[in-house]
């Protein structure tokens, strides 16, 4: 264990938030909004704008004890390299940072180390799209073809991309199985579109009829963000979301510029993961962030000023009921929907040696964030904490794998257990 923050004092919390307030106030003074500029999220100080009911001291103590034990028993038995943060009612109850950003250079992983968040990137891509929808740059039921004219499937809508009901197969499998790409070169988002345009790739199902998780959807959404903002996706996300929310350690990975600067990714046995031909595509992945920065985003989502109520409702609504079960997908968010009406949002991710978990439990005001840069499925165990923190859902720490019924997560791949 390298950096463990268990019992944050009220003084520390107030000082931290006061500093955030001061920094954001100074930043806001310097921001001049161009009326013709793309829309962006508000740069207000969300920590002071949103008030939560304070937790009783006994409850805080009990939560911290459980979280400390979880970190000790789940993350340290098979040591995790990564960071986790758990908060409730606007109070950070636990943080821990372990392992290394770069093993070879002996650089420790800290609270300020950006880690590849894998498919949790989809949450941020979807929020940028919803902000554009709010400002009438596009609509959810607009066809993709009306925005990207070369897109060859006329019935597919923006909503179909967001909720993974487009029927589009995953571009990674398409180009590998059909041998459509030279793996010595990195493929870009535009080239992903061109693959589908030029090779008559069959859909897995008619748009809007079935759920099929596909990274292709979010690679195309990134192209839409570029079109409507007139910026590259990395610059657009920084302008629209990261800067206004004070996410100082969050950025979109740009292969040519960042490949030698970012925290490393490692396999089970500690071998550094090599870059491959898919590492240039963004929107579906390729955002680097920290637990604290994602918590800033989580906190802001409670404000009515973040996005209009109707759009947040659309994002947090399940769209796929053709199969029985409690799992569903909204617009950029996974969710668990229980027969008694209980529901919470989450997303998990995997890319190379990076695993990620993000839980947004609105009803119980709980945020759970876990990021890791070395393959270890123990990172996914952080998801189970939602049952402990809310006491509203039938999820226990003793479950074998609540992420996907005992198997690999839906946006992960089967991996061998570390020996």
TrEMBL record:
Residues 84-376 form the Beta-lactamase-related domain. It comes from the Bacteria. It comes from Weeksella virosa (strain ATCC 43766 / DSM 16922 / JCM 21250 / CCUG 30538 / CDC 9751 / IAM 14551 / NBRC 16016 / NCTC 11634 / CL345/78). Gene3D superfamilies: DD-peptidase/beta-lactamase superfamily. This is Beta-lactamase. InterPro entries: AmpC-like, Beta-lactam-related, Beta-lactam/transpept-like. Pfam families: Beta-lactamase. The lineage of its organism: Bacteria, Pseudomonadati, Bacteroidota, Flavobacteriia, Flavobacteriales.
């Amino acid at each position: 264990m390298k950096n463990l923050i268990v019992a944050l004092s009220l003084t520390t919390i107030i000082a931290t938030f006061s500093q955030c307030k001061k920094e954001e106030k100074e930043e806001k003074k310097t921001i001049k909004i161009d009326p013709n500029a793309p829309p962006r999220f508000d740069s207000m100080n969300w920590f002071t704008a949103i008030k939560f009911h304070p937790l009783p001291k006994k409850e805080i103590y009990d939560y911290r004890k459980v979280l400390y034990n979880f970190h000790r028993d789940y993350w340290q038995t098979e040591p995790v390299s990564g960071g986790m943060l758990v908060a409730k009612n606007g109070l950070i109850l636990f943080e821990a940072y372990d392992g290394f950003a770069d093993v070879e250079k002996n650089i420790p992983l800290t609270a300020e180390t950006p880690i590849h968040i894998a498919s949790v990137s989809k949450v941020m891509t979807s929020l940028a799209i919803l902000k554009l929808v709010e400002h009438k740059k596009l609509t959810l039921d607009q066809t993709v073809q009306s925005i990207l004219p070369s897109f060859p499937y006329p019935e597919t809508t923006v909503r179909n991309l967001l909720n993974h009901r487009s029927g589009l197969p995953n571009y990674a499998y398409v180009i590998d199985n059909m041998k459509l790409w030279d793996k010595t070169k990195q493929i870009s988002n535009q080239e992903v579109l061109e693959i589908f345009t030029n090779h008559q790739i069959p859909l897995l199902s008619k748009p809007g009829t079935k759920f099929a998780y596909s990274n292709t959807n979010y690679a195309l959404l990134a192209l839409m963000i570029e079109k409507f903002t007139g910026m590259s996706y990395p610059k657009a996300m920084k302008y629209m979301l990261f800067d206004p929310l004070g996410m100082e350690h969050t950025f979109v990975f740009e292969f040519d510029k960042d490949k030698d600067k970012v925290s490393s990714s490692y396999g089970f046995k500690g071998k550094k993961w090599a870059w491959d031909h898919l590492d240039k595509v963004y929107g579906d992945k390729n955002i680097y962030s920290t637990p604290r920065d994602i918590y800033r985003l989580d906190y802001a989502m409670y404000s009515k000023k973040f996005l209009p109520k109707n759009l947040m409702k659309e994002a947090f609504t399940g769209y796929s009921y053709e199969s029985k079960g409690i799992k569903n997908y909204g617009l950029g968010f996974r969710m668990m929907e229980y027969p008694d009406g209980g529901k919470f949002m989450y997303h998990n991710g995997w890319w190379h040696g990076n695993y990620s978990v993000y839980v947004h439990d609105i009803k119980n005001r709980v945020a759970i964030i876990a990021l890791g840069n070395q393959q270890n499925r123990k990172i996914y165990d952080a998801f189970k904490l939602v049952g402990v923190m809310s006491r509203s859902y039938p999820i226990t720490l003793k479950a074998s794998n609540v992420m996907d019924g005992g198997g690999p997560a839906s946006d992960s791949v089967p991996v061998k257990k570390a020996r």
